[in-house]
Amino acid sequence: MQRAWKRVKANKGAAGIDGLDIAQTAEYLRWAWPDLRQQLLGGRYRPQPVRRVGIPKSDGSERELGIPTVTDRLIQQALLQVLQPRIDPTFSEHSYGFRPGRRAQDAVLAAQGYAQQGCHVVVDVDLSKFFDRVNHDILIDRLKKRVNDAGVIRLVRAYLNAGIMDGGVVIRRVEGTPQGGPLSPLLANVLLDEVDRELERRGHRFARYADDCNVYVRSHKAGERVMALLRRCYDRLRLKINESKSAVTRVFGRKFLGYALWQTRGGEVRRAVSGQALQAFKWRIRQLTRRSGGRSVTQVVEKLRSYLLGWKGYFRLAQTPRIWRSLDEWLRRRLRALQLKQWRRGKTIHRELLRLGASPWVAQSVAALSRRWWHNSRSAIHNVLTIAYFDRLGVPRLS
Length: 399
Fold this sequence. Notes:
Elements (H helix, E strand, L loop, with lengths): L1 H10 L10 H21 L7 E7 L5 E6 L2 H18 L16 H13 L4 E6 L3 H4 L2 H9 L5 H11 L3 E3 L2 E3 L12 H18 L3 E5 L2 E6 L2 H17 L10 E4 L8 E5 L5 E5 L1 H14 L8 H18 L6 H23 L2 H10 L4 H9 L4 H4 L10 H7 L6
Parallel strand pairs: 1-4
Antiparallel strand pairs: 1-2, 3-7, 3-8, 4-5, 6-7, 9-10
Helix pairs in contact: 1-3, 6-7, 6-8, 13-14
EC number: 2.7.7.49
GO molecular function, one term: metal ion binding
Protein name: RNA-directed DNA polymerase
């Protein structure tokens, strides 16, 4: 429990429906834990409903999360720490999502390897609202095959049945496992491992990350057969394929975990950031560097830095140096426009540019068009607000 508490604290996160954050939950558990412990051991513990939260996506839609209380996150984390070492070794080697020592980048590298071997057709399957459609009875049945402990099974089912609070009303759940709890990814792998084993039994090359599965074949006809097989497998699990996002198609240019593959004239398969991921990146950068809100460049860079480092870390496998350079140039141009907007008046712009080493002619010409921030950000001030200038501010470079 102490190890689980350290993990919950490190993950931080918002409060659940009880309104208690990490610090408040710590105080609550000082006196409440002995009773909670007896309830857990006696099979009487009943988790609280999760709090529904909508996370905006770059396409305007929302991803729904269910936020358990900190106490329930603690119990789920402790349960995960016991179950994962026992269950994870039984999963397929082609499963990469939410597993110790495995990352999304490993799945992308596997996909690149299959394409390099000549499998240029991909069966790309996207499940429709997977976490909302998980059948509780089927999931518990698959879990019982791996866990022979009635108390653990009872507690897992209690979490599945906990319900969701939305607008002050608790909605009872008869299916689904909410995203946001530590246990949900493990349960997803328990359910989907059955499909992995069927694909393995037939000798297919594939990579799965959570509910995102790609199978690589050599012909469109073979791909159609695999798609028919997957439909039967998912039907048995009462899961639904999203027809608009699933396809049997050429592998090159198809998005997988934010990456896309492309082929050189010499036949080498390389990795790139997908067009959709680039659009999402630019959308987020525009939000962080918008020229309203009364924030200083230093404050903007502080938030920008954490996002850029995370994005760069995830997409570090992309073999597209020219795209990195163009994104760097575009980002710095936005920051230059932001800086000019904050200086606002022509006299201030003139004074600040001279202070930074600009020639009097450059300072005067930019100040004369003081309100054309985006135009000026591409003019001679790139020799004043230089790459080194932004390095000193702490802006990470992508290239």
